[in-house]
Amino acid sequence: MRMWASFFSLLNVALVLMNVIEHGSAGITSTFIRAEWAAADIPLDNKVFETPNGYNAPQQVHITQGDYEGKALIISWVTPDAPGSSKVQFGTSEKQYQFSAEGSYSNYSFSSYKSGYIHHCLVDGLQYDTKYYYKIGDDDSGREFRFHTPPESGPDVPYTFGIIGDLGQTYNSLSTLQHYMESEGQAVLFVGDLSYADRYDNEDIGARWDSWGRFVEPSTAYQPWLWSIGNHEIEYFPKLGELVPFKSFLQRYRTPFEASQSSNPLWYAVRRASAHIIVLSSYSPYVKYTPQYIWLKEELERVDREKTPWLIVLVHVPIYNSNEAHFMEGECMRSVFENWFVSHKVDMIFAGHVHAYERSYRISNIHYNVSTGGCHPIPDKSAPVYITVGDGGNQEGLAARFRDPQPDYSAFRESSYGHSTLQIKNRTHAFYNWNRNDDGKKVPTDSVVFLNQYWASNLQRRKLKRNICRGSLSSVAAF
Ligand SMILES: *[C@@H]1O[C@H](CO)[C@@H](O)[C@H](O)[C@H]1NC(C)=O
Ligand SMILES: *[C@@H]1O[C@H](CO)[C@@H](O)[C@H](O)[C@H]1NC(C)=O
Ligand SMILES: *[C@@H]1O[C@H](CO)[C@@H](O)[C@H](O)[C@H]1NC(C)=O
Ligand SMILES: [Fe+2]
């Protein structure tokens, strides 16, 4: 065991060294596969799903950004027994709440399940970069939490995001969540597929949404998670009489879509510190003339790289993926949006869906059109890096079959559980890490220094090798 452990740590050091600064080399397929625990959901009586003490105590507390700029939050929770109060009391010192905001609640049914009372409250007019305390619930069963608002947007404002996807509620999910909570992450970019409650039947579907809300509360009550949706949120179940897609998700989770002039909660954008985050929906129409298409075109014009140098896109289905799982499912969105991703110099695109980890080189396939052939991705210094972080650890297990040989566009891939962090330093540099879950610790496994696509384009980079188009397995890698 010892020997293996030190072998793997040596391997890690080697991988980390090889990956520093977006580099040129053939892609790496890590052979490390560790499914630490069976991919089964944690039983409902486990303490990770414990309900808080007190009659009608608020549970499943989660917060998300509530406006475009970062001065508001939406605070959400569920009361199980009675509606109770939708008020949030808050202030800058503990137990002294100078302010309050009034929210509202609703309940819904899903098949034979009846939900508790779901509260959402917008808390706005917050100061930047300030620690707040807040209290929800009625006096005898009230609960208190805290959060820290982001600094005002500016080109050199440091900020650290976590990236988590396809989380579910297994022991592997728990490992991912706990490892993330040990990181310096200040907000989570969630790339879809939350609870996997849709794998259950009838009233258990709602019950597993509830348990998931309690499961993630140790993080979601204290820092915003920015939501994007995955296929497990669709829940289109004619057999159960449930025909309205995204019902549970939309009842339980909020997004600040109106603040970015979106007409739908499933796609939106926010500015946070030095990043402009665009969230897309893989499962809503996006071809030409649709609302999402029109919105994205306009939102890309609103991006101000002088203020928010880092342009990040979240979407559930990966656009470049070399796993057998979900291979080419991102092709339709690629053909519609890839041009814009390149012309607007998007820094990185995070996706989930595939239950493994993968990072691409900067490549594009925008020269291809159906009449010309030549349909291979080629190195493109204006293109984003595509990163799949669908490895949160849900009950469906790992996607362990990568296509062989590793395609040119794939820089690093590994089929094990984990999460990523993106540590933005300033307008030119961001330190990126994918952390594998390992026995009792997280192991930084894929580490890259990203140079900003807008500000760092004149920094010295290795020249692109342009002559790679079809068939060549020599590195697409270029810089
Ligand atoms: C919502 O709650 C009310 C009052 O408790 C209850 O009568 C109603 O059936 C619930 N609605 C749904 C859709 O579950
Ligand atoms: C397809 O590509 C060819 C060759 O690059 C170009 O001449 C043509 O205009 C393109 N067609 C469209 C519709 O973009
Ligand atoms: C930006 O951050 C990087 C990494 O910490 C550092 O090397 C670089 O000097 C910084 N640039 C500026 C302009 O401060
Ligand atoms: Fe998915």
From TrEMBL:
<dbReference type="Pfam" id="PF14008">
    <property type="entry name" value="Metallophos_C"/>
</dbReference>
<keyword id="KW-0732">Signal</keyword>
<protein>
    <recommendedName>
        <fullName>Purple acid phosphatase</fullName>
        <ecNumber>3.1.3.2</ecNumber>
    </recommendedName>
</protein>
<dbReference type="GO" id="GO:0003993">
    <property type="term" value="F:acid phosphatase activity"/>
</dbReference>
<comment type="similarity">
    <text>Belongs to the metallophosphoesterase superfamily. Purple acid phosphatase family.</text>
</comment>
<feature type="domain" description="Purple acid phosphatase C-terminal">
    <location>
        <begin position="383"/>
        <end position="441"/>
    </location>
</feature>
<dbReference type="InterPro" id="IPR025733">
    <property type="entry name" value="PAPs_C"/>
</dbReference>
<feature type="domain" description="Calcineurin-like phosphoesterase">
    <location>
        <begin position="160"/>
        <end position="357"/>
    </location>
</feature>
<dbReference type="InterPro" id="IPR041792">
    <property type="entry name" value="MPP_PAP"/>
</dbReference>
<keyword id="KW-0862">Zinc</keyword>
<dbReference type="Pfam" id="PF00149">
    <property type="entry name" value="Metallophos"/>
</dbReference>
<feature type="signal peptide">
    <location>
        <begin position="1"/>
        <end position="26"/>
    </location>
</feature>
<dbReference type="InterPro" id="IPR039331">
    <property type="entry name" value="PAPs-like"/>
</dbReference>
<dbReference type="GO" id="GO:0046872">
    <property type="term" value="F:metal ion binding"/>
</dbReference>
<keyword id="KW-0325">Glycoprotein</keyword>
<keyword id="KW-0479">Metal-binding</keyword>
<dbReference type="InterPro" id="IPR029052">
    <property type="entry name" value="Metallo-depent_PP-like"/>
</dbReference>
<dbReference type="InterPro" id="IPR008963">
    <property type="entry name" value="Purple_acid_Pase-like_N"/>
</dbReference>
<feature type="domain" description="Purple acid phosphatase N-terminal">
    <location>
        <begin position="58"/>
        <end position="149"/>
    </location>
</feature>
<keyword id="KW-0408">Iron</keyword>
<dbReference type="Pfam" id="PF16656">
    <property type="entry name" value="Pur_ac_phosph_N"/>
</dbReference>
<keyword id="KW-0378">Hydrolase</keyword>
<dbReference type="InterPro" id="IPR004843">
    <property type="entry name" value="Calcineurin-like_PHP"/>
</dbReference>
<dbReference type="InterPro" id="IPR015914">
    <property type="entry name" value="PAPs_N"/>
</dbReference>
